[in-house]
Design brief:
alpha/beta, Rossmann fold, six-stranded mixed beta sheet, 17 helices, globular, binds 6-O-phosphono-beta-D-fructofuranose
Length: 496
Amino acid sequence: MPLESSSIPENSHTAVNVLLDTAYQGIDTPTWAHLLAGARQSKLEQFIADLFAGKHVNVSENRPALHSALRNLHKTPVLIDDKDVMPAVAAVWSRIEALCSDWTGVTDVIHIGIGGSDFGPRLAIEALAHVTSLSSRGMRMHFLANIDTAELARIVKCAEAKSTRVIIVSKSFTTLETTMNAKAVVAWLKESGCNPGQIADALYAVTANTPAAEAFGVAQNNVYPFWDWVGGRYSVWSAVGLPIALQYGFETFQQFLAGAEAMDLHFKSAPLEDNLPVIMALALFHQQRTHGITSYAAIPYADALDWFPKWLQQLDMESNGKSVDRDGKPVQFSSPVVFGSAGSNAQHSYFQMLHQGTEIIPIDFIAVREPMSDRPEAVAHHRILLSNCLAQAQALANGKAASNPNDVYPGQRPSNLLLLPKLNAFYLGALLALYENRAACLGALWNINSFDQPGVEYGKVLAKPIEKALASHANDIVASEHIDAVTAARINFLNS
Ligand code: F6P
């Protein structure tokens, strides 16, 4: 049901039927005007246009960040080096659709991938599990990310090997966790009596490195490509989102893309003062400068969105957790720490600190208007969930005086309320695209390149000689170029 403008609260904005209420940000009209003027001065509008036009906004890797093309269901041409990428994108959609109709007799899917190759599809599968109108084909969808074999052991305990399909998801197809887990799953298929033909039929890959997937043993026809202009953490819109289509149907996957596309169209065209991702970015930008905030929380009042904060952590902190700007100069501000979990559970954990701690931590309260199940208790429970959400925001904003200092709530703790009409594939897509676009805006305001992640590489490099030292079982390792004295002592302890 479209939102009626007469009932929209003050300080609120809507797009795609999603309501953003910033009333508790404590930002007055002149300050909003100042923030918007600053955004215009820093050429935010031009940045948004450049992002969608395929300009090389990822300056360090000299390429565009065009994940929006993956949800461009209208197939408006998107040019990279004068070539429209939409025919290639649409060809993958057709292959996904065909695969969905062909997908029979499958009891288990093991989706192997980590980081951006895991969070998005895992979040979507969980978030949509409550939608009673969606059938899940009675198929188990397992996610295998960690190199720790606990996850693997749990999965193979309940999966039926002969009717299992394996999707190896890795943009680079070089990620150690993913390739080692893929080898372990192939070994399990063999141990379970699958012959080479059956194994070849069971293996699928989603990657931007097709040769590596084929070299691994995935048949050419089973490789679903995506492209280097799609960042790993922005890849759920590509065939990385295959589990969504396989589990809930191609239509549902398209609805997910449609919600994101609608949010993109809003982001591209709405004036800054009505633009949800921009307003959210400016609010955080302001709180950081005014209160020196170093963290913020995203609290979805929907159990189905419990994975959302984890997805958001990678999005925000991998995108904008940087110390230098696009020109390599030091920056004063960049991504705060992001954390969160489903409300009202979160209230019984760290909300004490949010109310009375010494730090101000802005919060995004994310609520859903409709109850989340068809249980007879659903309406009553949902009312309590919403009351809790509204009450927490009010208490945080207004505080409470008391004669006993221990009972004082200081208040002035800023928050947003985001209200989705319901939680289905469409609004999930809109929600994720809202946050992706917000992260891009924040990057632009901080003048940070939000589309690379050089900071994740060094640890991976150091892990290699350390792994070698652990494998040697020696307990007399001494400090060397890649292993310092502290780590050498730890290795010696582990090896003794
Ligand atoms: O190490 C970080 C990272 O590169 C993320 O950016 C990415 O989402 C993840 O690893 C997985 O990478 P890939 O999809 O190439 O396996």
